[in-house]
C-alpha cells in the first residue's frame, strides 16, 4: 500500500500563486506514475498534471493549466509538487494527488485532497 498526503492549499486572489505538496509513504517503489487531479463543486474530477515517478521524464498537463502550472518530483524526499501561477477563479477546486503502479490505466492510490480557492 501507498499513502499520499497533500498540503499547501488555501485561498488566493486571481493572478496569485500557490504551491501544493504530496508526500508518499509505504511501498513507494511500486509507484510508476504520479498525478494531480482536481474536482470543483458540481463537476467531475479532472486530470491536471502527471509525471513518471520511476523514470526520468517531463510532466504532462491539461490544456487548461498548461503554461501556468508546474509539476515536479523529489524522489529523495518522496514528494511531488504542483506550483500554480496566474491562478483563475475557475481553478477553484479540491486538489488530489494520486499514484498508480503502471504507465497507464486507473490510479490506484489517492490523497485526501486539499482545497484551493481563487477569488476574483
Characterise this structure.
With 120 residues, the chain is mainly β. The protein has no helices and eleven strands. The chain has strands at 2-7, 10-13, 18-26, 33-39, 46-52, 60-61, 69-74, 79-84, 93-100, 109-110, 114-119. The strands form two sheets. Strands 2, 4, 5, 6, 9, 10 and 11 form a seven-stranded mixed sheet that branches. A four-stranded antiparallel sheet has the order 1-3-8-7, with no helix packed on it. Strand 9 and strand 10 form a beta hairpin. The model has no long low-confidence stretch (mean pLDDT 96).
List its salient traits.
120 residues, mainly beta, seven-stranded mixed sheet, four-stranded antiparallel sheet, 0% helix, globular
Order of helices and strands: EEEEEEEEEEE
The count of DSSP E runs of length 2 or more, i.e. the number of strands, is 11
Structural class: mainly beta
Helix share, percent: under 10%
Secondary-structure map with pairings?
Elements: E1 2-7, E2 10-13, E3 18-26, E4 33-39, E5 46-52, E6 60-61, E7 69-74, E8 79-84, E9 93-100, E10 109-110, E11 114-119
Parallel strand pairs: 2-11
Antiparallel strand pairs: 1-3, 3-8, 4-5, 4-9, 5-6, 7-8, 9-10, 9-11
Amino acid at each position: 500500500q501507498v499513502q499520499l498526503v497533500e498540503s499547501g492549499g488555501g485561498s488566493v486572489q486571481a493572478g496569485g500563486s500557490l504551491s501544493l505538496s504530496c508526500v508518499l509513504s509505504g511501498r513507494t517503489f511500486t509507484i510508476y506514475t504520479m498525478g494531480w487531479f482536481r474536482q470543483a463543486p458540481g463537476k467531475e474530477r479532472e486530470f491536471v498534471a502527471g509525471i513518471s515517478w520511476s523514470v526520468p521524464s517531463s510532466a504532462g498537463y491539461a490544456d487548461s493549466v498548461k503554461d501556468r502550472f508546474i509539476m515536479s518530483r523529489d524522489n529523495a524526499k518522496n514528494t511531488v509538487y504542483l506550483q500554480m501561477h496566474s491562478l483563475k477563479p475557475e481553478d477553484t477546486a479540491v486538489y488530489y494527488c494520486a499514484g498508480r503502479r503502471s504507465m497507464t490505466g486507473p490510479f490506484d492510490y489517492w490523497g485526501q485532497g486539499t482545497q484551493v480557492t481563487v477569488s476574483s
